[in-house]
Amino acid sequence: MSSDAPVLKLYNTLTRVREEFRPLDPAHVRMYVCGPTVYDYAHIGNARPLIVFDVLFRLLRHLYGAEHVTYVRNITDVDDKINARAAERGISIRELTEGTNAVFQADVAALGCLPPSVQPRATEHIAEMIAIVERLIASGHAYAADGHVLFDVPSMADYGRLSRRPLDEMIAGARVDVAPYKRGDMDFVLWKPSKDSEPGWESPWGRGRPGWHLECSAMSWKHLGETFDIHGGGIDLVFPHHENEIAQTRCAFGHEAMANYWMHNGFLQVEGEKMSKSLGNFVTIHELLHTENFGGRKWPGEALRLAMLRTHYRQPIDFTVKALEEAEASLRRWSAQAGEASAEPGVSGDVLNALADDLNTPLALATLHELDGAALSGALKLLGVDLRAYVRWVEAQTREAVDVAKVSALIESRLAARAAKNWAESDRIRDELAAMGVALKDNKDGTTTWEVKR
Ligand code: AMP
Ligand code: ZN
What we know:
The protein has helices spanning about 45-65, 80-90, 95-110, 125-140, 165-175, 210-225, 240-255, 285-290, 300-310, 320-340, 350-355, 360-365, 375-380, 385-400, 405-420, 425-435; strands at about 10, 15-20, 30-35, 70-75, 140-145, 150, 190-195, 210, 230-235, 260-265, 270, 275, 315-320, 440, 450. It is α/β, with parallel strands linked by helices. The strands form five sheets. It has a four-stranded parallel sheet with strand order 4-3-9-10, sandwiched between helices. Strands 5-6-7-8 form a four-stranded antiparallel sheet. Helix 4 (about 125-140) crosses helix 6 (about 210-225), helix 4 crosses helix 7 (about 240-255) and helix 9 (about 300-310) crosses helix 10. Bound molecules: adenosine monophosphate and zinc ion (ZN). Zinc ion binds near residues 216 and 241. Zinc ion (ZN) binds next to helix 7.
């Protein structure tokens, strides 16, 4: 890390304070973020952690060097919601998870997110999951009963440190299903038996499948080690998901910490309520980008990203069409301004300082109006707002709006006019096309090609 770099401070849910970030190994900064369960398209609330932690990934790469940062975001491809959805649609589980993942990857790319260093799949880490369960049983933190293996919550003296909830609230929040094989109400499933019709793997406890929390403990262990630097996700994951990941990993490996810094983004809301699949008040990223279902038009991914970054990641966002319109107006203005810049983009100290202060993206954006073209491009690059991608999107939209058959017919007529040396008619057609936003190029070989001008 260079000496003039700002001190990075991050709010840590574990301690409830903003702390100076000190990686375990500055030559290998490690971050894990819980990824999607690929049973359905991601909604724009799910886009928030993707964008927030992408900004952090970019900042860490800037501060420590790109080759010194590992970012792991998993793909949960075994889950009961997946089984149910595949059955409902009459397709195989693999077809469902592959198809959903392909759309997910296209969505996050359109939002300007870099691919994480590793995107592990749960189904490829079953051996690690079984190994963790065996360690937990051996150390007295888990027990097998009735084909299930459960984590014995009272065996961990400081269970609940992350969420700091009173025990009775945790019991209620755990949505405990009373089951005869459970010793305690809070005990949670590590492994459960599978029916023949359900996906399952052979294990010392019979054919079965993992519980959701176990998957993240296994994948973070495999790709980042027993203890790592940053663990992130939305605020709803604090309990029970992250609390249980911590219990599994710490008790399996005997360390004080699973990750040293726990970061959580606030909710994206619609009329004061969390956007969620279960409430039905959601818009998918795919719909926003490719249909006219939100505000009656398609939106560029850059506008969604920018609208999101206008709010600090820990604050709730009330999402509106107006926010997207304002973001797009900024993109339009900046594209004109940055287009004039020729210098190599650098990053201004103000922008870097704002981001280093617990990812203060609204403050970073507020400093942009003072910057010239090159500094503006540099700052936007660090924020992952790609003006060139936005300009390409605008051009593609214009092209889509052009009636290709009509253009071809006009070009044919113009070639005929030229063959008849009717120059006036040829020019008239060229003007008609120009008015449609189509520019012609007459090639040496006598053919004419065209492109759409903005
Ligand atoms: P899920 O598919 O529910 O596991 O969510 C995937 C990620 O999106 C998790 O990090 C959630 O915390 C996050 N998330 C879900 N809904 C919202 C929301 N409305 N606003 C912000 N983050 C959310
Ligand atoms: Zn997780």
